[in-house]
Amino acid sequence: MAAELDRPTRPSQALRSAFLAHLGRAEEAREILQRFPAIVSDDDETSIGLLHTLFETALLLSETEIVRALAARLAAFADRLTITGSAFFGGSVGRLLGDAAAMLGEPESARGYYARALDVCAKVRFRPETALVRLHLAELLLANYPAEAATAQAHLDFAIEELRTMKMQPALERALRHKGLLHA
């Protein structure tokens, strides 16, 4: 896999940017993301799989303008899953749109996107993505809807069990911190 990420192709570089962003290597990820300036244009013909990966990178890097532009471009695909050239990336477009809406201060939109993501994940029984969506939804509820703390806790409980079973350690640790069971 590492050799694939060193190739100069657009898909390989997009995946590399996402990996680097997940690893906290923001400047390296940002440098690669900047090699894709056309993605913010409606005239750009980049595939949805590649846009999904670059959208995730932009979200992780808090690149607000890129996030805003890609959210607008990808909104029509909120009820879809994407698969990239790798088994490690892809997932629910709705989850990323929910993350974008939350980042942009639009909690009601975020909620709607997360609901759509849960629906599509349930149809195909996509457990890892369902667990991530429920974690993100719980975080949104905790931050913006204090009266719905019990619902947020139920989403966290579900996510924790699934994340633990699937050994999705970084997300599990994030969920446990919200429950006060793991301290940073």
Structure description:
- By secondary structure, the chain is mostly helical.
- It folds into 2 domains: 1-110, no CATH class; 126-184, no CATH class.
- It is 67% helix and 3% strand.
- The chain is built from 10 helices and 2 strands.
- The chain has a two-stranded antiparallel ribbon.
- Strand 1 and strand 2 (90-92) form a beta hairpin.
- Helix 4 runs parallel beside helix 6 and helix 8 packs antiparallel against helix 9 (149-165).
- It is globular and about 45 Å long.
- The mean pLDDT is 91.
Total beta-strand segments: 2
Q: Which descriptor suits the 3D outline?
A: globular
Largest sheet: 2 strands, antiparallel
Q: Helix- and strand-based class?
A: mainly alpha
Could you state the order of secondary-structure elements as H and E?
Answer: HHHHHEEHHHHH
Distance between the termini: 30 Å
- What is the mean pLDDT? 91
Helix content: 55-70%
The portion of residues forming beta strands comes to under 5%
Radius of gyration: 16 Å
Main β-sheet, spatial strand arrangement: 1-2
Oligomeric status: single chain
Which ranges are low-confidence, i.e. pLDDT below 50, for 5 or more consecutive residues?
none
**How many domains make up the 3D coordinates?**
2
Tally of separate helices: 10
Which features does this protein show?
mainly alpha; 184 residues; single chain; 10 helices; two-stranded antiparallel sheet
